[in-house]
Amino acid sequence: MDRAELDAYGGVPVADYSLHYTHIDTLAATPIKTSSGFLHRITLNKPVANGIIIVRDGGAGGAVIAIITTPATATNPITLDYRVPFSAGLHITTQTAAQDITVAWK
What is the pTM of this model? Predict the structure, then answer.
């Protein structure tokens, strides 16, 4: 990621822009972080046709940030940029099919 791209994310200096990632490859409810933070992006590494991923602010009953349904014809990796804050934690649930995804967050 170059300096121009970092500046597009609110001018955060390179030294302060440290993302974490979580890889999920099972059918599961996964708590990613239990406090406030920032959801940067989700990459569907190996999309599964009609797979559903639910992204929440907080635990399993938290506010929905996104419900992602993988296209039936998806075969290549797909990256979805969110760049949104969450306040009560970040929780990802994969449903209907085991997904292979990577979540980038701070």
Answer: 0.81
13-52 pLDDT per residue, tens: 544 468 999 999 989 899 999 999 999 999 999 988 889 9
What CA–CA distance (Å, rounded) separates 71 from 50? Answer: 6
Residues 6+ apart with CB under 8 A from 58: 86, 87, 88, 89, 91
Pick the CATH number of 20-105 from 1.10.1740.10, 3.40.50.150, 2.60.120.340, 1.20.1300.10: 2.60.120.340
Instruction: Give the distance, in angstroms, between the CA of residue 12 and the centroid of all CA atoms in the same chain.
Output: 20
pLDDT tens profile 69-86: 998 888 889 999 999 999
Contact partners, residue 69, CB within 8 Å, separation at least 6 = 50, 51, 52
Q: Tell me the one-letter amino acid at 32.
A: I
Q: In 10 A of CB 48, how many CB atoms?
A: 19
